[in-house]
Amino acid sequence: MKITWLGHSAFHIETGKAKILIDPFFTGNPSFDESTRRDATAGLTHILLTHGHGDHVGDTVKIAKETGATVVANFDLGMWLAHKGVTKLEPGNTGGTIHLGGFSATFVNALHSSAHISEDGVSHSLGNANGLVLHFDDEPTLYHMGDTDIFSDMALINELHQPEIGLVPIGDRFTMGGAVAALACQRFFKFGTVIPCHYGSFPIIDQTADTFVAAMDEMKGKVEVPKVGGSISR
User: Fold this and answer.
1) Cβ contacts of residue 62 below 8 Å, gap of 6+?
2) Which strands form 19-22's sheet, in the order they lie side by side?
3) 60 close to 24: Cβ distance less than 8 angstroms
4) What confidence score (pLDDT) does residue 101 get?
5) How far apart are CA 91 and CA 71, in angstroms?
6) Which residues of 156-184 are buried (b: 16+ CB within 10 A; e: fewer)?
7) Through-space distance between the first and last CA atoms of the chain, rounded to whole angstroms
């Protein structure tokens, strides 16, 4: 498995059977490296979304139309995307698992909001925010937490899924900050690899992973902090 961080919460996951984008926020993302766009979308099979905020839905509609990739999202967000012209869609909801050929995606809880404000100023709910647990046939189980605070039922997510790789938001203000994110990882999970995200993009969130790394006492050796566009193989 090759995991590439594309800035903010966007990741490219490549396995022998799938090429996956999670939360492809490219356009308008201050930390996105435009030179990575081609590799991120070439041969794409799936786009997975944690929730409906613009910095996570990002370029989904455009990429889906250009590549023919299947979009996986909660039902409310999925129906909104269908209205926008997305035709290959696999909707689900919290607790549900979708089998996608070579891997499955399970929607789990996240403590966050999920909405879109239209041009007339009206806020439209796009379902609950989620994390996504990906089980692969021959690869480590991966958990993208989405945007979230810490919550005690993370223990159940670990019990049910035993994720080996965690993609963890650490930027504070809109998600848990670095110290709390470290507590979540150390109290509730037994990750073999932890990759922080949702930082270093907008100026009002944390710009580095330093606080998180410093607080990851017992798991410090398991933290990987790639540069934007950098990859980790597992």
Assistant:
1) none
2) 89-92, 70-74, 46-48, 19-22, 11-14, 2-5, 231-233
3) yes
4) 87
5) 8
6) ebbeebebbbbbbbbbbebbbbbebbbeb
7) 5
Tens-digit pLDDT profile for residues 186-234: 999 999 999 999 999 999 999 999 999 999 998 999 999 999 999 999 9
- 3-state SS, the chain, equals CEEEECCCCCEEEECCCCEEEECCCCCCCCCCCHHHHHHHHCCCCEEECCCCCHHHHCCHHHHHHHHCCEEEEEHHHHHHHHHCCCCCEEEECCCCEEECCCEEEEEEECCCCCEEECCCCCEEECCCCEEEEEEECCCCCEEECCCCCCCCCHHHHHHHHCCCEEEEECECCCCCEHHHHHHHHHHHCCCCEEEEECCCCCCCCCCCCHHHHHHCCCCHHHECCCCCCCEEEC
Q: Report the pLDDT averaged over residues 81-90.
A: 97
Please tell me the class of the 2-227 domain.
alpha beta
Q: In the chain, what are the domain boundaries? A: 2-227
d(CA 34, CA 173): 26
Which amino acid makes up residue 155? A
Q: Whole-angstrom Cα distance, residue 207 to residue 194?
A: 18
What integer best gives the mean pLDDT of the chain? 97
